[in-house]
């Protein structure tokens, strides 16, 4: 049942909060990071998450919990998992990230228990079960994996369990030398017949210094006969915050052959993605739409602790592979239920002066654009959102250099940055979907072939939305704008 305390905190400061997103998931109060245990179980979507219920800083991880019928409207539930055992009860540890699977109607939840003993991390893999997704029981035989494989050091966490070839498998993130400058990222594979007894199989990802020092939050799943491996590498040499690999997996030998790698999102804020299957069998992913201070591109978590919350989740995104086995991520179609007050324009003319589009809700809306390069004489467009005068977050579309950028350097006073995304044009056309949500701006290019996600913290009066081109004119085939409602109001 939803506690009165949580409901009151969702509602009491509603008119005072200028940064809390309307349609991105946030915890009711305090600190939130990685999504955990995503699953469709007995008619409900379950979203668990790393949670510190006491204040807005990371400490003593619990698991928060929410449920939904459609992945859009969410209902808060009581805290699902507390660090109350010796193997997890630590102010610098707790119940770290994990996953959920269903077997014979029973929900199995796996997580990492983390404590510090004599100055060293001790991370083990543990299990809880539930018959209804509401009440949870820790397995008395925990930890089910008490130590990392030989050669791995302290960093050993974030189990993700899946079935394949008639058995259960688990990938766990780790490092051969620890999460230090000399560390070497690993993803370890385990095998089980019954979800209780686990045997180490192999390392399916070895960095060799090229993929970071520690592979956090790994995931593995099959699409179109290919096996996809994702993780969030610490200190990746190319600053990749969410890596995907596509290849072939031989479960008999434990060998994973990588054919392609890429970034799931090139923006500032997309970390620890976890996938699950929706009610229709589609692969969907949700990520933590923030980042850690040790990331060189991160300027801090922003000012939302002034509103007594910190941490945002990405929109649920459907995962597909295109004909080149490149990953595409695009908001789930269920998001359309939030649309209202729709405006459409055909053959819209952009000029050097700003033309204002005026969404009905200028802080919470979607904007779709279809652009034919041949109709953009200047070959360059600027799209401003969350603006006021000289201050705005800007999407730059450079059709000559074939680069689309999210520039938040003038978007607020809290952070700076610009992310450039090289793109391939498809038959001289570009499709953009821009999602704006109070403190979130996302750009999806060509139906999710490229994604750029960033958080900004505008003042309340920053409500301008405009399009311009630096010289000459441009004609945009189609613009569709829809205000988007709240996921908490029903």
Explain briefly what this protein structure is.
By secondary structure, this protein is mainly beta. The chain is built from 1 helix and 33 strands.
Secondary structure layout plus pairing:
Blueprint: H1 4-11, E1 30-41, E2 44-52, E3 62-68, E4 74-81, E5 94-103, E6 106-117, E7 120-130, E8 137-138, E9 156-164, E10 167-175, E11 185-192, E12 199-206, E13 214-223, E14 226-234, E15 243-250, E16 255-263, E17 271-277, E18 283-288, E19 309-310, E20 317-321, E21 327-331, E22 339-350, E23 355-356, E24 364-372, E25 380-388, E26 391-398, E27 403-407, E28 418-422, E29 429-437, E30 440-445, E31 450-455, E32 464-468, E33 474-484
Please give a handful of descriptors for the protein shown.
six-stranded antiparallel beta sheet, disordered N terminus, 490 residues, 52% strand, single chain, mainly beta, globular
């Amino acid at each position: 049942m939803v506690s009165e305390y949580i409901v009151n905190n969702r509602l009491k400061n509603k008119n005072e909060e200028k940064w809390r997103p309307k349609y991105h998931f946030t915890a009711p109060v305090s600190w939130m990071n990685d999504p955990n245990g995503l699953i469709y179980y007995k008619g409900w979507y379950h979203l668990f998450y790393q949670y510190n219920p006491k204040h807005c800083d990371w400490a003593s991880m619990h698991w928060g919990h929410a449920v939904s019928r459609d992945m859009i409207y969410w209902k808060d539930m009581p805290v699902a998992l507390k660090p109350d055992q010796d193997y997890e009860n630590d102010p610098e540890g707790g119940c770290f990230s994990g996953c959920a699977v269903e077997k014979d109607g029973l929900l199995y939840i796996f997580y990492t228990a983390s404590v510090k003993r004599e100055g060293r991390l001790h991370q083990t893999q543990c299990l809880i079960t539930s018959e209804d997704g509401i009440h949870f029981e820790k397995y008395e035989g925990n930890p089910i994996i008490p130590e990392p494989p030989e050669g791995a050091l302290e960093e050993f966490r974030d189990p993700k369990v899946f079935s394949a070839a008639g058995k259960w498998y688990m990938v766990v993130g780790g490092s051969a030398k620890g999460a230090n400058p000399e560390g070497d990222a690993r993803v370890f594979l385990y095998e089980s017949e019954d979800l209780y007894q686990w045997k180490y199989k192999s390392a399916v990802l070895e960095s060799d210094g090229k993929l970071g020092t520690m592979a956090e939050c790994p995931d593995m799943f099959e699409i179109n006969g290919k096996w996809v491996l994702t993780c969030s590498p610490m200190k990746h040499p190319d600053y990749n915050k969410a890596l995907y690999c596509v290849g072939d997996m031989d479960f008999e030998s434990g060998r994973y052959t990588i054919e392609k790698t890429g970034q799931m999102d090139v923006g500032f804020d997309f970390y620890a993605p976890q996938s699950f299957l929706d009610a229709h069998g589609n692969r969907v992913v949700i990520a933590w739409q923030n980042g850690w201070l040790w990331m060189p591109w991160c300027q801090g978590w922003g000012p939302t602790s002034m509103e007594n919350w910190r941490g945002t989740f990405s929109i649920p995104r459907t995962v597909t592979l295109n004909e080149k086995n490149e990953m595409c991520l695009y908001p789930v179609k269920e998001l359309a239920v939030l649309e209202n007050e729709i405006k459409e324009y055909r053959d819209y003319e952009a000029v050097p002066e700003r033309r204002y589009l005026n969404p009905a809700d200028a802080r919470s809306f979607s904007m779709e654009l279809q652009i034919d390069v041949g109709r953009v004489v200047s070959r360059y467009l600027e799209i401003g959102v969350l603006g006021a005068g000289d201050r705005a977050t800007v999407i730059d579309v450079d059709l000559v250099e074939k680069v689309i950028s999210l520039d938040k350097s003038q978007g607020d006073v809290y952070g700076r940055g610009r992310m450039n995304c090289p793109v391939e044009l498809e038959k001289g056309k570009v499709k953009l979907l821009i999602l704006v949500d109070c403190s979130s701006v996302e750009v999806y290019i060509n139906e999710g072939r490229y994604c750029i996600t960033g958080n900004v913290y505008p003042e309340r009066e920053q409500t301008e939305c405009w399009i311009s081109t630096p010289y000459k004119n441009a004609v945009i085939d189609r613009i569709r704008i829809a205000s988007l409602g709240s996921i908490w109001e029903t």
